[in-house]
Amino acid sequence: MSTTDTLPGQIAAKAKPDHKVNFTLMFTAMAILYAIFMAYRMYLGAYGFEAGLDSTSPEFETYWGNLLIYQLPVLFGAGIVCWIYLIATRDRNLAAITPELEFKRNFYLALWLCAYTAAVFPLGYAVEQDAVWHQTVMRDSPFSPTHVIAFYAMIPIYLFFGVGSFIYAMTRVPEFSRGISFMHVMGVVGPFLILPNVGFNEWGHAFWLTEEIFSHPLHWGFVVLGWTALALAGVLMQIVMRLKDLFPVVFKLETSK
Questions:
Q1: pLDDT in tens, 181-221
Q2: How far is CA 34 from CA 37, 128, 157, 194, in A?
């Protein structure tokens, strides 16, 4: 068959509505994410007791002070770069996008939320480990080995995905760009506020309650703010309701070609 015979078919194939969703990026991001978490856990196992018991020692500064200093600008910097990119490349004509594209973008927003959930989930394990650490070793610094990982690594990592999902929704998904989703705000801002709550927690342990007991009022903020992540289920329902409307339109367009 000649090139001239196949060319119209190729053009028609390219013109067909494309609603297929690529999951590769999400699974790659989650694989990298859990590789980072496993590396942190192995690092804690290797140097947590060997160099992490005395915050005034040179070993502590080498293994934990330097880790804190380097990871904060890297992790927050990566988030800021991503958020600026999402804003700079925003869709400036959302009213004109096709149903197929809106269908895909709602799916991609759901994938953002999946990655965000995967990033938040290990924090629960990390903070339980942190409490056990302080019950066993006691605290002589707010920047203990478990804090360096749980608060100053895991929180910036999940903020990368949480804030990113919000910006993606506001700049690329018509249904979310028309107003602010209260559920989405709750699901992102609540876990974000865990970071300033760390300061209150450290102040309280220094001047109020020195024991590390799980039920202390100092820890109630972590629990309540952690629960706000459940609002993501509401965001998912908003996505599902829109997909329900788009589904017959998208596939009708496809079958009519």
A1: 999 999 999 999 988 888 888 788 777 766 667 777 888 88
A2: 5, 18, 11, 21
- Within 10 angstroms of residue 102's Cβ, the number of other Cβ atoms is 22
CB-based contact 187:232 (threshold 8 Å): yes
Q: Are 142 and 61 a contacting pair, CB within 8 Å? A: no
| 216: Cα separation from own chain's centroid | 28
Q: pTM for the full model? A: 0.84
CA distance 28 to 30: 5
What domains can you pick out in the chain, each with its CATH number? Answer: 22-256 (1.20.1050.50)
CA distance 107 to 100: 11
Percent of the chain scoring above 70 in pLDDT = 89
> Quick one: tokens of 81?
């770069």
Q: Assess contact for 147 and 172: CB atoms under 8 A.
A: no
Distances (CA, A) of 66 to 35, 51, 131, 148: 21, 12, 23, 10
